Amino acid sequence: MKYSENEEQKNLLNQFLASNGVELSADVLAKLYAFADLVVETKEYGNLISEKDSQKFLSRHIADSLVPYIYIGKLLDSRLRENDKPLSGNVSASEVSTSLKGKRWADMGAGAGCPSFPLAIVMPEVQFYAVEPRNKRVQFMNFVKNQLHLDNMTVVGKRFETSGLAYLDFVSCRALSTFENDWERAQPGLARGGQFVTLKSYNNIVHLENDPAVHIYKYALPQEEQEYALVTRGNE
């Protein structure tokens, strides 16, 4: 069953987004569903996802991939409130896009494209670089980029350290290594004032709770028992 027809998964994703103050257009949602179908159904590039996870790709992987977008919206909302600017409820997608226009974002170890492709879909004003050394994954992501017409996505078939990417506004990764190892790899590519953003199991980063250099945003995913965390660190 295609994800555009999977009402249970669509409802779980939309409930997750709504609970976090996010409303996406029908066109954006359709592109997210199409990305999910490509990951689950495309076989010629190897086994991209386990059978178990293929049953809950929207509620688990797409939802998780969009947490940085949710977090950026909440940050923008709080900054507007601090400046006493009038708000009409949640920060809109257009306000987030305007605040990020022209930014450059690299994702280390992009794999099959999470979180970089969902983020590129919802943030078309940002230039994304999906950095991945494995050739089959690179081929798959280029295939997806062409299928979905993602002009703001560049697939880089190298390790991040040898990619040549520098002066980036954001560097992200998802469950790659320890926070410390990931930060060490990401930091040289960040511009001054740039942000490292990573998605981890909360249990793996609980030791960072009292570290003044990092900020932790805890969250839960639909029908998942464990607690997760988005962790950010700025490049001073």
Question: What is the number of beta strands?
Answer: 7
Specify Rg, calculated over alpha carbons: 17 Å
CATH topology title: Rossmann fold
Report the structural category. alpha/beta
Amino- and carboxy-terminal Cα gap: 47 Å
Number of helices: 9
Strand content is 15-25%
Q: What's the architecture in CATH terms?
A: 3-Layer(aba) Sandwich
Average per-residue pLDDT, rounded, comes to: 91
Strand order, sheet with most strands: 3-2-1-4-5-7-6
> Roughly what percent helix?
40-55%
**Global outline:** globular
Indicate the low-confidence ranges by residue numbers. Answer: 85-89
CATH class: Alpha Beta
Q: Structurally, how many domains make up the residues?
A: 1
Largest sheet entry: 7 strands, mixed
Explain the overall architecture.
- 40% of the residues lie in helices and 19% in strands.
- The chain is globular and about 45 Å long.
- Strand 2, helix 8 and strand 3 (153-156) form a beta-alpha-beta unit.
- The chain has one domain (3-192): Vaccinia Virus protein VP39 (Rossmann fold).
- The protein has a seven-stranded mixed sheet, with helices on both faces.
- Residues 85-89 have low confidence and may be disordered.
- The chain contains nine helices and seven strands, in the order H-H-H-H-H-H-E-H-E-H-E-E-H-E-E-E.
- Helix 1 packs parallel to helix 4, helix 2 (26-41) runs antiparallel to helix 7 (116-122) and helix 5 (67-82) packs across helix 6.
- The chain is α/β, with parallel strands linked by helices and 236 residues long.
- The chain has helices spanning 7-19, 26-41, 51-54, 57-65, 67-82, 93-100, 116-122, 135-148, 179-186; strands spanning 104-108, 127-131, 153-156, 168-174, 190-201, 214-219, 228-234.
- The N and C termini lie far apart (47 Å).
